[in-house]
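Bench log. Compound arrived from synthesis this morning; before running ITC I wanted a structural hypothesis for how glutathione sits in the protein. Inputs:
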Amino acid sequence: MLVLHHAWRSSASRRVRLCLAEKGLEFESRTVDLTKMEHHRPEYLKLNPNGVIPLLILDDGRSLYESGTICEYLDETHPEPPLRPADPFARAVMRNWIRHVDERIGNLIVFNWAHSMAKVASQWSDAELAEKMKNVPSKERREAWLRAARRPYTEEERGEARAKLVLLLDRMEEMLGQSKWLVGDAYSIADIAVVPFVKRIDEEIAPDAMTASQHPRVAAWWASIQARPAFAKANIGPFTSA
Ligand SMILES: N[C@@H](CCC(=O)N[C@@H](CS)C(=O)NCC(=O)O)C(=O)O
């Protein structure tokens, strides 16, 4: 059986759960507590040297990381229902969109890590913090942890991050003017990639931007996504609940 190392509120994990749910694939859930730095333990880093979740362990024991890659792999190995356009050009556009969304993760971190991550990290002593930082493989994430622990993002920084996330909605509005879903006329990994971002924009970061008057096509797209049985199955709950 597939084993998913993930967290219920992690955006990248949510993508993979959405994909698994669309495919009707069951998995064994292994939740990773990020505040306990379980994803930076040596045995975890051996499987995912990036030190992030999600991580999918396949039936034969091999493992995969990177949510976009995992979703593509699942679509390749379980083609029904298809989650990638058949046309190679449209597939390439889908991949570029996933990359575009991935590159905006820093803006989401500004908001997401202000909750449980900051609450726990701010309690660490300087010595504990320094020790934990030794195991964080990337400079960007070390900086994110240091910010969560010691220097909360300023209102100005939050404003800048919010504006960049709203730009993502502008881009989606344009794409949805050209096709029913983000890439072509079928729901795909391009849509899945952005769902966790839109969820957070809608519930906390910029709910006003999600109204039909601001982004009518995105609002309709979001309503259709939430009506999908896979959305309920993937357990994309409110971010701030326990
Ligand atoms: N590009 C990666 C991003 C994964 C990622 O950033 N995961 C976050 C949770 S959504 C994480 O593990 N954060 C903990 C950390 O950076 O220490 C993917 O799509 O899988």
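What the model suggests: Residues 88-114+153-231 form a domain with the Glutathione S-transferase Yfyf (Class Pi); Chain A, domain 2 fold (CATH 1.20.1050.10). The CA atoms of residues 212 and 220 lie 8 Å apart.
ITC booked for Thursday regardless.
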